[in-house]
Design goal:
Length: about 120
């Protein structure tokens, strides 16, 4: 009887504290303001400007790399790459589809070690 009471109390407290923990986290998340609620128009404009500057820096670095080494891929190379990847993807899909088909007369199982 003592073990049953202990198990019941253990489950009760586990359930109680789990709900308490979940409700506390949910309540705190509801109380936390979002960026849209706290940021002013000037803050949002500053964030957008910084993102634009980072994009410019990335384009400049890529431009200087292409100036030294040439373009990574031409349009024709990129189209050929995409076509190759599409063929590989279709071949893999077909191979996986065929891999899981069940044959009724499978020689490996009939004559193999799992005989």
């Amino acid at each position: 009887m003592r073990e049953q009471v202990d198990a019941f109390l253990c489950l009760f407290f586990l359930f109680f504290f789990q709900n308490l923990w979940f409700n506390t986290l949910t309540m705190m998340n509801d109380m936390m303001p979002t960026i849209e609620e706290t940021a002013s128009a000037a803050d949002l404009a500053q964030i957008e400007h910084e993102e634009w500057e980072r994009g410019n820096e990335e384009r400049e670095r890529w431009g200087s790399t292409e100036a030294v080494h040439g373009p990574l891929l031409t349009k024709a190379d990129l189209d050929a790459f995409h076509a190759d990847m599409m063929r590989e993807s279709l071949a893999l899909d077909l191979a996986l589809e065929n891999a899981f088909k069940c044959d009724d007369n499978d020689e490996w199982f009939d004559d193999g070690p799992l005989k």
